[in-house]
Structures are given as structure tokens and as C-alpha cells.
Amino acid sequence: MPAPTTPKRKSRQRNQLYITLGVMSVLGIVVGVLVRSGLSTPKPAPTPPAAQRAETGPNTPAASDPSEAAPAGPQLVADDGRTLWQAPAEQGPTSGRPIDLAYLPPGCQMIIALRPSEIAASETGQATLRALGPGVARLLQQIETATGVRFDAIERLTVGLRPSSAQGIETTLVFVSSGADGAKPGVYRPAGADGVGVVAAPAVLSEIRELQGAAPPLRRELELLAKHSDAGRQLSMIVSPNFLYADGKQLFSGAAAALREPLFLETPDEVRGLMLSVDTGPRFYWELRAASVAEMPASKLAATLQGRIAGWPSGLQLAVLDMDPAPHGRRVVAGLPAMARVAAQYSRYGVQNGHAVLNGYLPAGAGPSLALAAELTLAQLSAGTQGAPAGAPAAGGQPTTIAEKLRAPATVSFARDTLEMAVRYLADEMATPITIQGADLQLEGITKNQSFELDVKDRPAEEVLVTILSKANPDKTATGPTDPKQKLVYVVSGDRIVVTTRAAAAKRGDTLPPVFSE
């Protein structure tokens, strides 16, 4: 049958499951990032429209007429069902101030800011840490070993990650503590910075000292996102998506490995920076900010992201039905669609400070519930407890190896769609995972959202795949799959097919199929 103009149900729902888990398990991802990056060494008032908010700054004259002064207390507007939620107004010396980036090195591509003492002091925080599993206990020990400070005595912990010259990741920890803790030898204590400690490699510390306490230079998009962060929130994460798909791909290991490809597929190419922040009390508030290229208006990007969130609940409902979770986690996993439905229902989108913004509120206990559901589901998926997709080839007489499936007939037909979707259609036809090596494509300037038409019926699956890659190839003068100008190719890796580029495959020493070399 021709492929429909939307993905087949099983592929689409499974992808939505992974994406939702990625968002719901942000705390778990942060834990994984820290562990793998080397720590062993009722509704709130909506935000008033811009015209009704007073912009203040050093050059803004004070109101001289009391009648013109803004009234005291929160400014309320009628809820139109669309206006962004007003962020929580926390009390404290850091509330409303941006994250302090002092003592991080230049060029960080991912920044994670935590408030450990607040997390450990709240029942919600303690429950969330427990829900994330035994890995968290090991993480807390590693943090305490690296800093010489008890986790619950760290007021602020900022982690910066950047690519290293050795094709790895350099990690820097900046922590603030008070009291007698923190006297561990080897921890850099900047002069005049009370309670501040820095843990980093010697070469990185040299760069930090040169900055003399100033904020480090970062990519423009990340700097602007950091400028509009809130240091009072218990968790903030700022990241360049390109880092996750290239140098930072090693962060996606173990149970998190299933998230990397779906996150790449679901992140618009135009996004250059993301910031996710969470405030855990008295209600669970989350906020996502995205910085995009000039060609993508922030309003369009916000609507695109919101549309994807709105589609999660129905897709998740079907995806969970396809799973066969372990008995101890079955009820928790079954609750995922309801959690996603509530999150989507109470989410809003809009534009603030030139950024696409999505935000929402959830009940106070949402953090532990989301963490537990995500941790259990990812663990079970990584352990192979997902049921076989409906329509999978039955044993006996059906193609089982990749080579056999590539020779079997397949049909993919659509009026106009993207490389990403074309690959999904073929993967469903073959009942074989086909992934796109996003970082490789980006190095060649190839996007996954370019569109084309296709009508190939009852041809060997390999022929269909080569036709798709030819249609999506940026150089239209390529004469065939053996032409060096045919940049898009595929390789077989284990039990899956990987779409990559000729240059990247050669660099890794991957063996190209004969169709690209004969």
C-alpha cells in the first residue's frame, strides 16, 4: 500500500513516547549528564500584555505623578486561554536575577544550574531524588567527593560542559557553600569570592583565572537565554542543540540512548539555543525558551513547539498499549498518557524578549511522579520489554536479516514530505529501525526538513532507500549513487540502518554498501 501522508501509527507513537519521556525526565537527564561528564574527579495570573507591563532600567525615569504609578501587587488580566502563565514570584536574594555564570570557562555549550540545598530541604525534592533511582545516590556521593561539601550544604551548583580538543567533554563545577564545608585540597577558591569553589582540569582553571570573575564569553544565543534566566529556580538547563548531536552525543548512553535520535528529529533545524527551567513549589512550574535563526520568527517557532506538545497525549495512549512493561511498573507506565494530557492542557505559548516561550503549571507533586514514570519507562525500554510492533513479520518465511529486508519489495508514495518522514515510512515498511545521523548531515549543511515527492511501488527496499537519499541530496547534479556528489548514503550498523554522509562514513571507516561504490 502507498505510504500515507502522515507516519504509520506505530512509528509515530513510539517516537512521541520517546520525546515525551525526554521532556518528562529532564531531571534524570541532568543526572545522567553529570555522571557521564566526569564528576568522579489553581491557576496563576497570566502575564499582562507587553503594553501593560512597565519596562524598567537604568535610563527609565521614575514616575513623578503618584496617579501614574503602577498599582501595588500583581497585575491581573482576564484569562484568554492563550496568554503565557506568569512565572512564580519567589522571595529571596536571587529571585528574578539571571544565573550567575562567573567562574565558568569560555565556550560552554551546555550549562546546568541547580540549587541543591533547596532541593534536599523540600519533601518534593527529596521524593524526586528517590524516584530517579539508585543512580542518584551514587551521583550525590560523586558530587560530595568532587567538591568536599555535603550535597545539602551546597547553595548553588553550576555545571558547564564544552567540547575538548581530545574529542571528549570538559566539565567544570562551580559551587557556593557556607560554613565549615568545602576545605578540600585541589578545589580552586577564588580570592574575594566567599564560599565559591571551582572544580576543573588545570588547563581549564587557567582560562577561568584569566577572566578574573567575569562571566565567560558564550555563543550569542546562549548568552541571551542566560540573560533571561532566573537564578531562583531549582533547575535551569541551557544548551545548544548542535552540541547534543555532535560532541555531546556521548551523554546519551544507557537508557538515555533511545532519546537522542527522536530529540534530533523533533527539534526544528532553526533552533540555536534552548533553556528549560523548573520551579518546584508551591506549584510545579516549567518553562521552555528557544532561540532561533532570524529567518524563523519566534511566534512561528512557539506555535510549532506547542503543536507538537498538543499531539502527545493521543499518541502516547496508543504507544503505551503497544508496550509490555514489567509488572512492578505497569501502573506507573500506564499513567503516562494522563500525565502528558494534563501537561498539554495547562501549557501556553508565546513570545518574550524575542524568544519562543512555552510554560505551564502542574500540581506540586508532579515532579516525583514524572521522574518515576520516566525512569521506569526508559529503563524498561532499554531492557527490551517493549512489545513487538503490530504488523511485525512473523517467524518463518519472512525476511529476518537486514540484507534480506533490503531485497524485499517495499512501497513508499507521497505527494510531498520530508526526508525525516520518508525514512519513517520505509522503516515501517521494512519493520527495521532506520535512523538519521543528524550531526553528520549538519556538517554538510543538509537539513532533515527539506521536502520532495516520491512514488516508488513494489521495488526492493534498498532501491526505495537510495531513491529517497537521491531526492534529498543537496547536489542535484549527482548522476547516481556512485557519484561522489551523492553526499547522502546509508550504512548498516548492527540491527539498524543509518543514514549518514559519504564524508562522515569515510572518516569513521564505515563500509558503504556496494550500490554506492560499484
From TrEMBL:
- Enumerate the residue ranges of region (Disordered): 40-75
Keywords recorded for this protein, A-Z: Membrane, Transmembrane, Transmembrane helix
Transmembrane residues, as ranges?
Answer: 17-39
Cite the record's Low complexity compositional bias ranges: 61-74
Name the domain of life this protein comes from.
Answer: Bacteria
Full protein name: Uncharacterized protein
What is the scientific name of the source organism? Pirellulimonas nuda
Q: What is the lineage of its organism?
A: Bacteria, Pseudomonadati, Planctomycetota, Planctomycetia, Pirellulales
